[in-house]
TrEMBL record:
The keyword Hydrolase applies. Pfam families: Hydrolase_4 (PF12146). It comes from the Bacteria. Residues 74-177 form the Serine aminopeptidase S33 domain. GO terms for molecular function: hydrolase activity. InterPro entries: AB_hydrolase_fold, DNA-binding_regulatory, Hydrolase_4. Keywords: Hydrolase. Coiled coil: none annotated. This is Alpha/beta fold hydrolase. The keyword Transmembrane does not apply. PANTHER family: ALPHA/BETA-HYDROLASE, ALPHA_BETA HYDROLASE FOLD-1 DOMAIN-CONTAINING PROTEIN.
Length: 288
């Protein structure tokens, strides 16, 4: 009887591992790519088109809105998953009327930029550093700032550690670590069974693509000394819960300011409270 129970337990474990591995493969492949028909172009006349190359050779494209006055500050804008630079029309206008220039890139695997895969910061931080190089050459003397949304905010925070070129950064609806947000998102579909699927996906990504998603961690960088950070998060965000921002803020309260938007959803602060958004963001950047 005991032997039969042991055999059943081993069989159950093998089934769980097999399902986790298969689920992890499917999860990983779907999480790293967008459908080909879901990569919109920017609207006509949306800034000056610019292009650079990433370290792995893929083309990275952006829209450039130079500052009106030479040497005026410039902000780099980073969008979320499934989005593109075209989503920043209102924010670009806000920065322009306050004397800022702006650069709005399409992240790799999005919009008109190359690549069929995105990596939640593992490669995008290097891409962002190349955009910083481009801005410094194109607008010498400009103070450099960053604003990111969702995945873009996670990328920005991963680039905001010691040695960053940014004077200050604003991150709306950021994730604390990719492990945490992946478990949350998968958990919305399968409940407590999420962790084995996510673990399988992480192992597959490491073996198949050499991507260690444990290192996709804004928390790791914000815990270190660095530039001032403003975190913005809606209290009703179900995509990336506000607990991620609270966790980040608790890691380095002397460096981080937080604006919790009452009733706010995912990256909707400017739509919900446009006047306050402009006042807080512009005021924060001018102060730094």
């Amino acid at each position: 009887m005991k032997r039969r129970i042991r055999i059943l337990l081993i069989e159950a474990l093998v089934i769980v591992l097999a399902v986790s591995c298969l689920g992890g493969v499917v999860l990983c492949e779907n999480a790293l790519r967008l459908p080909a028909n879901h990569r919109p172009s920017p609207p006509a006349g949306f800034g000056a088109p610019v292009e650079i190359q990433a370290a792995d050779g893929i083309p990275l494209k952006a829209s450039w809105f130079p500052p009106k006055d030479p040497g005026a500050p410039v902000v780099i804008l980073l969008h979320g998953v499934g989005d593109s630079r075209r989503s920043f029309g209102g924010i670009v206008a806000m920065f322009q009327r306050n004397g800022f220039g702006a650069l709005a890139p399409d992240s790799r695997g999005h919009g008109l930029s190359g690549g069929d895969q995105f990596t939640f910061g593992l490669k995008e931080v290097g891409d962002l550093n190349r955009w910083c190089d481009w801005v410094e050459k194109s607008s010498p003397g400009s103070r450099l700032y960053g604003l990111g949304e969702s995945m873009g905010s996670g990328i920005l925070l991963q680039a905001a550690g010691p040695g960053t070129r940014f004077r200050a950064v604003v991150a709306e609806s950021p994730f604390a670590t990719f492990w945490m947000v992946a478990n949350h998102r998968v958990g919305q579909l399968v409940g407590y069974a999420a962790t084995p699927f996510v673990a399988g996906a992480f192992v597959y990504a490491r073996l198949r693509y050499g991507l260690n998603f444990r290192e996709a961690s804004p928390l790791k960088q914000v815990s270190k000394p660095g530039v001032p950070i403003l975190l913005i998060h809606g209290t009703k965000d179900e995509n990336i819960p506000i607990e991620h921002t609270r966790f980040l803020a608790s890691a380095n309260p002397g460096r981080i300011q937080v604006w919790e938007v009452p009733g706010g959803d995912h990256v909707d602060a400017i739509a919900r409270a446009p006047v306050e958004f402009e006042k807080r963001v512009i005021g924060f950047l001018h102060a730094n």
